[in-house]
Amino acid sequence: MNVQPTQPFQADGNDENPIRVRTIFVSDIHLGTRGCQAEKFLDFLRDYDADLIYLVGDIVDGWQLKSGWYWPQSHNDVVQKLLRKARKGARVVYVPGNHDEFMRDFYGIHFGGIEVIEKTIHVGADGKRYLIIHGDLFDVVIRNARWLALLGNKAYDLAIMLNTHFNTMRRLLGLPYWSLSRWIKLKVKNAVNFIGEFEKTLSMEGRRHHVEGVVCGHIHHPVIRDIDGLTYVNCGDWVESCTAAVEHFDGQLEIIEWSKASSGTRPPHTPVNGEVPARLEEVLPLGGIAGLAASTSKSSG
User: Fold this and answer.
1) Do the beta carbons of residue 142 and residue 149 sit within 8 Å?
2) 209 and 287 in contact (C-beta within 8 Å)?
3) Separation between Cα atoms, residue 134 and residue 98, nearest integer Å
4) Tens of pLDDT along 23-70?
5) CA 110 to CA 300: how far, in whole Å?
6) CA-to-CA distance for 244 and 270, rounded, in angstroms?
7) pLDDT grade, residue 138 (50/70/90)?
8) What residue ranges define each of the domains in the chain, with the CATH number in brackets?
9) CB of 91 within 8 A of CB of 280?
10) Which residue, 59, 152, 157, 40, is CA-closest to 100?
């Protein structure tokens, strides 16, 4: 199915000189948790515009909201910002994950112009095809021992809390942000092995769909790497690493590390020569979606 923006794309009127890229891929924002770095994500959205934005799961953390409500203004601002981009012509595609699994009841529906789809294939500017999927269905703990996943989520929340206090001290000392929780995870042998197995499994799923690459989230480990000829892309997250993947107008993929940006400044970026805003070409829904329903909600802002 060929998909075109519903209207010519316009940059957000509140933003000045945004960096234009063809596609933005973000995952694991975890709105509704204290660890979510919503302000940094808002800064990123102000500085980057695209014709197509993929929300690759765990955007809202339903698990956490069930145990205790936490929804500050900055989290609401993120939702309003995404809705505003959709209204101004960007195509916003939401592929739910395990923490926002409640959204899986709404496949084929629009929410304020945001499309909810089980999984999809993205066609890059260079013709390469990428499977877009959160990845939790290939996590054996999530599939076979949900209670263990919930227990692990509590331990992870503790690590994030420690990470927050740790970085508060670093700011007082004039030091840049550094993810303690991410460092701990990468130092644990079992976690490193899990990451490797997850990447291998997702690359196998990409081959099953006969694509050249796969874009996912879930494990909070941002990377672009070649796995036996298939491009594996993990968007990262906005709890630990504050990263997103972007596609430039020549089809090149890049991880943007927003955590490396100091307040009010952009992280290092080398634009593609002759960047020209391009219309997105294709979003191919999988799973027999016959059509997308009309918008079920509208928002102003």
Assistant:
1) yes
2) no
3) 8
4) 999 999 999 999 899 999 999 999 999 999 999 999 999 988 988 999
5) 16
6) 16
7) confident
8) 19-285 (3.60.21.10)
9) yes
10) 59
- Nearest-10 Cα torsion for 112, 22, 264, 75: 20
Each residue's pLDDT tens digit, 211-259: 999 999 998 899 999 999 999 999 999 998 899 999 999 999 999 998 6
**Minimum mean pLDDT among 33-47, 119-133, 158-172: which range?**
158-172
Residue 85: name the closest of 13, 32, 4 by CA.
Answer: 13
Mean pLDDT value across the chain: 77
In degrees and rounded to multiples of 5, residue 293 shows phi and psi of: -75, 170
Global model pTM greater than 0.85? no
Output the 3-class SS for the chain: CECCCCCCCCCCCCCCCCEEEEEEEECCCCECCCCCCHHHHHHHHHHEEEEEEEECCCCECHHHHHHCCCCCHHHHHHHHHHHHHHHCCCEEEECCCCCCHHHHHHCCCEECCEEECCCEEEECCCCCEEEECCCHHHCHHHHHCHHHHHHHHHHHHHHHHHHHHHHHHHHHCCCCCCCHHHHHHHHCHHHHHHHHHHHHHHHHHHHHCCCCEEEECCCCCCEEEEECCEEEEECCCCCCCCEEEEECCCCCEEEEEHHHCCCCCCCCCCCCCCCCCCCCCEEEECCCCCCCCCECCCCCC
Vertex 47 angle, CA 258 and 35, to 5°: 40
User: What's the CA gap between 165 and 169, in Å, rounded?
Assistant: 7
Q: Report the length, in residues, of the chain.
A: 301
pLDDT in tens, 86-99: 999 999 999 999 99
Residue 10 pLDDT level (bands cut at 50, 70, 90):
low
